[in-house]
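Appendix B, record 7
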Amino acid sequence: MKYVIHLGVHRTASLLLQQNLSFNREQLRAQRVFYVNAEMPKAVQRQVRMIRRRHKPGSTPQDYGAFAELNAAITSAASKAGAETVLISDENRLGPTMTQSLLWNETNPAFYPQAATNLRYAQAGLPLEDTRLLLYTRNAESYLVSLYSDAIRQNHTTLTLEQFCRSVNFNSIDFSALEQTLCALHPGLQVKSRQFERIKLGPETYLRSFLRDIGLDPKPFVLHPAAPRPQLDAMQVEALLHIMSGRQSKRGEMISALRDQVLNGAPNPLAPLVLPAWVTDSMRVTDQGRVLDAPEARSA
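Structure tokens (predicted):
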């Protein structure tokens, strides 16, 4: 049995892929792929809860054996279905995002600091030499802005963008280091990395690139486009922060209606969310301490 694990990371359109893979379950079956998210959704949900319990303050983490038991059940079900490949798409296997860690009141959270340990637990009992990881990455700056935009959208923070940047260890956002960390788990483990921005040519291209990455013929698959969810602009963020400042009001229904009104508005392309200059300067400093100018930074 071969195992393919899609690791988002967060904010790389994982939901689009997961929904389309579920819609095309029969096509996956025809190519002898057991898509766990669709075939055993409760198993994936349980794994997510188990990973979060390893991090959430005050929770009691489950031991390694619990992960191995769940993986054995998945492998058994895949074998009975006549599959040759087990496919799981789960961006949570690397651990919580920095915004989730802030929600748990952690101080200055870093970028997936326990990714290797999390993956070892999530892969308990599975042969790493027969496992392929698909790691989707992002430009560090756009990733940070997207995380913040999503945190505001989900009502998970009342910080301004500058306050948010001061609250997290943004300099730890290093996708190359994350890839190397995962590669070091086992000499036979295959890790393929793709940058989200480079394949962001539309949902169909994104889906077909993913299918080719896992060795499937994309021709029979039918795209089911998801409703677009654009990043918030600076004016929307300002409005939502103002609304959230009054969320202790007894007029909860009015606050909820105002939030919905802001979120349903189309972002203004002339008012993008922009990182503070001190953040971008810090991100572009090399090991020698030289600050890259904009063209160099884009090509790095």
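Remarks on this record: The longest strand covers residues 131-137. Residues 2-139+171-213 form a domain with the Rossmann fold fold (CATH 3.40.50).
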